[in-house]
């Protein structure tokens, strides 16, 4: 048992010095990105908000979107309708530029700003550390190790010491010497945020290893459950992309249309139940049609498999939106904890080596 405990301590130490550093970077960038909608809207009111700030008519929004697609479709790759903090329409062009348009009048509002690009780059750095190709695997693997071994080994050591006196395990002696103070902060924050950090790490790794996650989640699928309503929608005459752009869906809000790059590709429509930030389950629908209007692919939360429904909640859980404002605040604070654990753990390691 003594050898096992020593192994756990060494495992926790060396994983903390390696994976803990990457977790700290991911936590800091993730915490900042939690407030991206509010910060982006505040910094770019002329691009992302409209006056007066009131709900707009969906029919007029769809008509404006269709007109913009028809005017620019030869040079477009994507059109984004109002979604989250963005109350306007944005067009992404083949040359990489993005411009914003009024959702009712269709008038040009301006070009993508540096602050919007900053948050896009921040999200990319959060997911990949800015390293092409292999960056997401470094982050994803470190997150899994953080989830499976680093947090669990810390919890094991905490329990071995404080299982008979739990209150003591949550106390910090602020007047103690540096080594003891660092230890107290480390143990209390680690124990207090154990479950939030486990959830954030587990859901975060999904974005790297989603295929494996979905395979594991398939155990929740019902073999008799319909996988799609694709066959139902294929009955009758094909519906052109114009019909989807002009007629609002009865259950979902259209948020993005990806246009075909060539004559062989079709249109890709992405829907969400509510355009703007909301708590609760994330319900989406994705539809693909070919150039003739025939449906080639369809996923819909209402008829999807249980595994896909569960997988669809990893994003709102990871960023806290499933719990509304308080959920986002918890994720924001939790994201700052790994860097504090890393610093206090590093200080304990250095002080011990000096001694």
TrEMBL record:
Transmembrane feature ranges: 12-35, 137-159, 188-209, 325-350
Domain of life per record: Bacteria
InterPro entries documented for this protein: PepSY-ass_TM
Protein keywords: Membrane, Transmembrane, Transmembrane helix
Keyword Membrane assigned: yes
Alphabetized Pfam families for the sequence: PepSY_TM
PANTHER family: IRON-REGULATED INNER MEMBRANE PROTEIN-RELATED
Entry protein name: Uncharacterized iron-regulated membrane protein
Organism: Arenibacter troitsensis
